[in-house]
Amino acid sequence: xxxxxxxxLMHDExxxxxxxxxxxxxxxxxxxxxxxxxxxxAESIKPLFSERKAGNLFIFGNPGVGKTASVNFVFxxxxxxxxxxxxxxxxxxxxQTTHTIALELARIAGLLYPPKGVPTEEIVKSAxxxxxxxxxxxxxxxxxxxxxxxxxxxxxINELSNAGLILITNHAEWKEYIEPxxxxxxxxxxxxxxxxxxxxxxxxxxxRAKMALRPGVIDSEMIKMIASGAGSDVRxxxxxxxxxxxxxxxxxxxxxxxxxxxxxxxxxxxxVMLELSDEEKKVYDAIKENNGAVSGKIYEVYLENGGKLSMxxxxxxxxxxxxxxxxxxxxxxxxFQGKSRRLWVKNGS
Length: 349
Ligand SMILES: Nc1ncnc2c1ncn2[C@@H]1O[C@H](COP(=O)(O)OP(=O)(O)OP(=O)(O)O)[C@@H](O)[C@H]1O
Ligand SMILES: [Mg+2]
Known about the structure:
It is a single chain. By secondary structure, this protein is of the alpha/beta class. The chain has three domains: 32-193, 3-Layer(aba) Sandwich (Rossmann fold); 213-274, Helicase, Ruva Protein, domain 3 (Orthogonal Bundle), CATH 1.10.8; 278-348, Orthogonal Bundle (Arc Repressor Mutant, subunit A). The chain is 45% helix and 12% strand. It has helices at residues 35-45, 67-79, 98-109, 120-131, 151-157, 180-186, 198-212, 220-230, 234-250, 258-274, 278-289, 295-304, 311-323, and strands at 56-61, 85-91, 136-142, 163-169, 188-193, 327-331, 341-345. The strands form two sheets. A five-stranded parallel β-sheet has the order 2-3-4-1-5, with helices on both faces. Strands 6-7 form a two-stranded antiparallel sheet. α1 packs across α2, α7 packs across α8 (220-230) and α11 (278-289) crosses α12 (295-304). The longest helix is centred in the C-terminal third of the chain and has 17 residues, at 234-250. The chain starts with 34 loop residues before the first helix and ends with a strand. The chain binds adenosine-5'-triphosphate and magnesium ion. Residues 67-68, 142 line the site of magnesium ion.
């Protein structure tokens, strides 16, 4: 007889095989979509093994495209080589001043300093001297645009004979603010992390779902839906995976169904909406009031509603709403150089 209740999840059952595999800071075992970038990072470090100068990298790209994960992937491999080259990872979001970075370097070197009282330069010098007892080191400053000043770069550049520097940011234009004298000494090589295509996103999420969820819980159609909702941000894709699986569990369903994916997407959208700045919200509302109108018209409405941005900044905001996945823009082929665009809020909501 057909088992009528086999699709029901028992109260002590879970759909997750290992939920920790969906953590944001989990470094994947393989990242084939970033093969070229990972190779380039490794190549920039290689000269250190033969005591030659490393290349310095400037890595940029949109949120959730694997910048941090790729560098950590290379650093993990580096650790396996026997410890001649020390990888140092510092996130500038948590360490925004030269002094806190100096203290962090000291901590990694195993030196203890009081938070105040010792000059920054002295701390950096001693920390690096200790760290450089090995053959070489690579320092990654992630989210480097968060730095309050560039002094740390000046201090590091003087010590870079057997060290490499990797700077990561979402904002490619940050590099333009580096003083020419420093820029020429840093001699940064650009490494852009382009957005993932929908197919790549599908591959990444499939791999992760296979490990993190129990067999048969999610099928490829659902992963495709999630991949298209995630845009190019893997973090968003993983948040959707977790949320859909939780919703299915709550429903006592052994499988993730379309309605779970849809609900997870609308929940995520609510969250994004809540996090919009006032100005972003104004731009969004103007689009919503004129769903499908050309951007010039929407800009007029935005001004009538009391908006203060210039046309240029307005366009920048539209781009960022597009990246957040809550509006859609389509080229009309009309207007100046055929560049006029029609704008919609997603799902007409
Ligand atoms: N090609 C990939 N294969 C497997 N997992 C990936 C891949 N790319 C990204 N990820 C995963 O997606 C998440 C986000 O990646 P990551 O933190 O590297 O993004 P990022 O580019 O540094 O974003 P941000 O600019 O916001 O810091 C991580 O959990 C990472 O493991
Ligand atoms: Mg990152």
